[in-house]
Amino acid sequence: MGAGHHHRIHRPGDTPVHRLPPQCKLAAVAAFAIVVVATPRTAVWAFAVYAALLAAVAAVARIPPGFVLRRMAIEIPFVAFALALPFIGLGERVPVLGLRLSEEGLWAAWNILAKATLGVVASILLAATTEPRLILQGARRLRLPPLLVQIAMFMLRYLDVILDEMRRMRIARESRGFVARDLRAAPVLARSAGALFIRSYERGERVHLAMLSRGYTGVMPVLDDAAAPPAAWARALSLPAAAAVVAVLALTVA
Amino acid sequence: MHVPDGFFNAAVSVSAGVVAAAGVAVCLRAARRELDDRTAPMAGLVAAFVFAAQMLNFPVAAGTSGHLLGGALAAVLVGPYTAVLAVSVVLIVQAFLFADGGLTALGINILLMAIVTAVVGWAVFRLVTAVLPRGKPAITAASFLAALVSVPASALVFTLLFWLGGTAPIDVAAVAAAMGGVHVLIGIGEGLITALTVSAVLAVRPDLVYGARGLAAPLVLRTADGETRVPQPAAPAPAAPARRPGRFLLGGVAVALVLAGVVSFYASGDPDGLEKVAGDKGFDAGEEEHGLAGSPLADYGVQGVENERLSVGLAGIVGVGVTVVIGGAVFYLVRRRTGDETAPGRVGDTGRAAV
After folding, report:
1. CB-based burial of residue B32 (10 Å sphere; 0-12 exposed, 13-18 middle, 19+ buried)?
2. N or C: lower Cβ tally within 10 Å for chain B?
3. Confidence (pTM)
């Protein structure tokens, strides 16, 4: 789970997708994900249309397919689970390629694979075309609790610092001949985790005092709170709107 | 492991989202009461720590390794409210910035990995420390048990949600057995790492461990005249009385009920998950095995075969009800319990802030 986090997904660029205000993109991706999840799984063609929509967005944003594919590795555990479903699922068995598989399990596997993949690709496109800092700004403009957004901002700001501390501790351990082989290594690693916590907490206190001395009162000053123009909203929401039309069609057909 | 999109149906996803939002809102208010304007930087740095600690791989046996989930650890180290906030923020950042965990499943992920682990972990921790004699060994043992119980508890809630609105046609008893078995093992690892980490922090900075407040010996000044005990600084006047979140919670529950009932009406055009399983007699088999025959939900599912949409709507509403009642009960207990001891907590906090 943690393996994929070392590499930031953001891919700088200057395309129409990159330039959209972050709050519009956030709302669009969230709405798109909800529409995808609400689509009946029997409407296979609808999911093909969704994939085509995302491909179009990726093309406009000039995100190469390989970039998206590499970062989709994050859903592998659930792919494994989905692939097991036809074998362990309940219900009537149908012969597929000489195997007797659960029909219901096949549908469920398709359902999870299709929806999870579309959701992951949509999230990857959002993160690839939007700076992390801007995503949080967008969240604030979408009226998420300001305190929550502030916490996320602090986390993001100091994440690399904390990760660097952890990396330095690892180098220090390994330069003293430490190799984590089995459970006996756990106390050493736990002491590192404890030290990391103390350093993080103390850094938090120092950051707080430094901010107090600069006039912090619990609220971060808002430098730019420009509302997104309606045209930007229209452009961003065209993705979930198109998906919603497809979903309604799929519901009425089904 | 983060739940992706499409794993749960829309009704359960939305209901869990509303419950998670209500839980986070309660924690935001409570954390601000405990930490004042320190909330943002402290919770932010703790979130960064949790994120980093999740990357620390602990070797279990040859070839396999595990890592912390961190909910119970954070609850013991910084208190349940800040812990829920920190882990929730980690999950939010992972969903939006790292595409890890579905956006529609964010509520489920927060409910399972932040709220359930931290609340259950803290409840177990308080219980064990209340029973055992005071001291550092008790704190370490309580941390172990808290983390140990928190992981299967999270798996249990996962199974409950799966029963209400999972999209995979697996016998619920099988899910419960598989999830329970695996997560007891994971829980042992989590407990071990948590206990070791807490004892490492206790050895260096016991004042930083929220769960060990009040353990520090009073300051004694030894002068020529003898020893004088410095009294603990008086607790500051309690902050403005906390407004009870009753109205807010009621509103959230109402919204969840409407969404669960209405959304599922329109969302589940095809016989999805629950009622399909019921139709395939999956629940019937499950009932015989683990005695769910008396469960009203099983009845809804079975009756609902004639009217599938109604069935999902009802199941969604019942799901919200069950989740809210359980979550509400746990929150109420925790609030009561921590409410009793805000005074010593504030002393410790203000003392720390002044250092």
Report:
1. buried
2. C
3. 0.75
